[in-house]
Specification:
The structure is a homodimer of 235-residue chains.
Chain A lengths: L2 H15 L11 H8 L3 H13 L3 E4 L3 E4 L8 E2 L15 E11 L3 H7 L7 E10 L2 E11 L8 H5 L2 H8 L4 E12 L2 H7 L6 E11 L4 E10 L4 E7 L3
Parallel strand pairs in A: 3-10
Antiparallel strand pairs in A: 1-2, 4-5, 5-6, 6-9, 7-8, 8-9
Chain A binds a DNA duplex (19 and 19 nucleotides) through helix 3.
Protein name (chains A, B): UTRA domain-containing protein
GO molecular function (chains A, B): DNA binding; DNA-binding transcription factor activity
Keywords (chains A, B): DNA-binding, Transcription, Transcription regulation
DNA sequence: CAGTGGTCTAGACCACGGC
DNA sequence: CCGTGGTCTAGACCACTGG
């Protein structure tokens, strides 16, 4: 593990452990530099990481402050699935509806940039949060990247398996969503009524080398799904 | 303007101007360094910025590549309002329903971290996209930060005024949303039916010094609203 | 004007990809 | 093995905040 990652982690732990609140001041840069015995740039890099994660903000001429404006019960879109699995705080379980190897449809071919010959795993799950129906999930994984899946893996956290088991390095994702009315089939699965509100969410996940390996389509239950998102300015 | 910002902008223009596509390779780091006559770290910083913005991705041992998986007609949540105003591509107009100075409600006090005495501007607008009703927006601006607003400013892009006119430096925002059914009042404004799907979106915008200055509540029309979001891994 | 964070440099060394 | 991006250092200088 790299120095700046270790330092970032340490500072994050420090914030959590000391129950620091929004706006609380952290030690100044020079002090951190002395504490960790690294160069200024390394500390800067660590703080930059924490800033991107929405954990702190830095004010020139003033100091480094804690950013903590989350609301309880909201799912963080950034750490959804592929990234920092912040869903641990939620009791998330799954019922596997389908698991098979297949050839991709046009839609899947487009989103994963593959040909009709390349096989994919198809996984359809019903996901529960605190025992309530949260969403229907249909995922397609490139078989060349994810060579094996079974009922057990798929009934737990797939992304955890991809990262811990297969050591896949996930780089970035493209996400699209809109609101609509549930079809009869969708409503049945979510124990709602036809025409009730639903959020339709699509993701394409890429490895660090840019290769797309997962295309997922989700339909969220309007009664259970609430999200939050921290955005930085990036001048 | 800083060196690394200027370089990042230049590279972005280069990508757009040469119509580079997803996966196209950019010149290698050393070449860019020579071209711009700066140190390696400065180029790295510029590329990091572009990476965060979702414009490129870098692969160690391989190169720098263009990332361009947007879908047309989707609103980018990152560059919504406060940030890179990418809404220019959409024909966005507003009808002002209300504009007044008032004392904050409990809800506004909490979200802006202010007391009951501190006055705020209240703006209610109906926003149109390509002439269609996109959303109802209710915004509260701290009067101490935004001392003046009038009908004309408010009928155009408020954030543009805040940045260009007032020279406010926006640092980050916290965003929350969920799905629900429209009330009668909401449905009337959006020309939909009571009980139709809607997306309820709340934002709190902060200056670079961490001070919250805008709390906004939006209700999106399910027929017009579709969003995208690029997420990076941030190990 | 002292304190604090931000930019930039030059250069050493490391880690990964692909031939 | 070589080319490529990533980390890290030490230090100079700059820009903003707040008393």
């Amino acid at each position: 593990m790299l120095k700046y990652q270790r330092i970032a982690e340490d500072i994050e732990h420090y914030i959590v452990h000391n129950r620091l609140k929004q706006g609380d001041k952290l030690p100044v840069l020079e002090e951190l530099r002395r504490k960790y015995e690294v160069s200024k740039s390394t500390i800067t890099k660590a703080l930059e990481l924490l800033e991107m994660k929405g954990i702190i903000y830095q004010v020139r001429g003033s100091g480094i402050f804690v950013r903590r404006h989350k609301r309880k019960g909201y799912i963080n879109l950034d750490e959804n699935q592929g990234f920092r699995s912040g869903l641990d705080e939620f009791q998330l379980t799954s019922e596997v509806l389908k698991l098979e190897v297949m050839n991709p449809s046009e839609e899947v071919m487009t989103n994963l940039s593959i040909s009709a010959e390349e096989e994919v795993y198809y996984v359809k799950r019903l996901r529960f949060i605190h025992g309530q129906r949260l969403c229907i999930e249909e995922s397609y994984y490139k078989k060349s990247v994810v060579p094996f899946l079974n009922e057990q893996i798929v009934s737990e956290s797939i992304f955890n398996y991809l990262k811990e088991g297969l050591k896949l390095e996930i780089g970035f994702s493209d996400n699209f969503f809109h609101i609509g009315k549930l079809t009869k089939t969708e409503a049945n699965l979510l124990a709602l009524r036809t025409g009730d509100p639903g959020m339709y969410y699509e993701s394409v996940y890429h490895l660090t080398n840019g290769e797309a390996f997962d295309y997922s389509k989700l339909v969220y239950n309007f009664q259970e799904a609430q999200f939050y998102l921290q955005i930085n300015s990036l001048s």
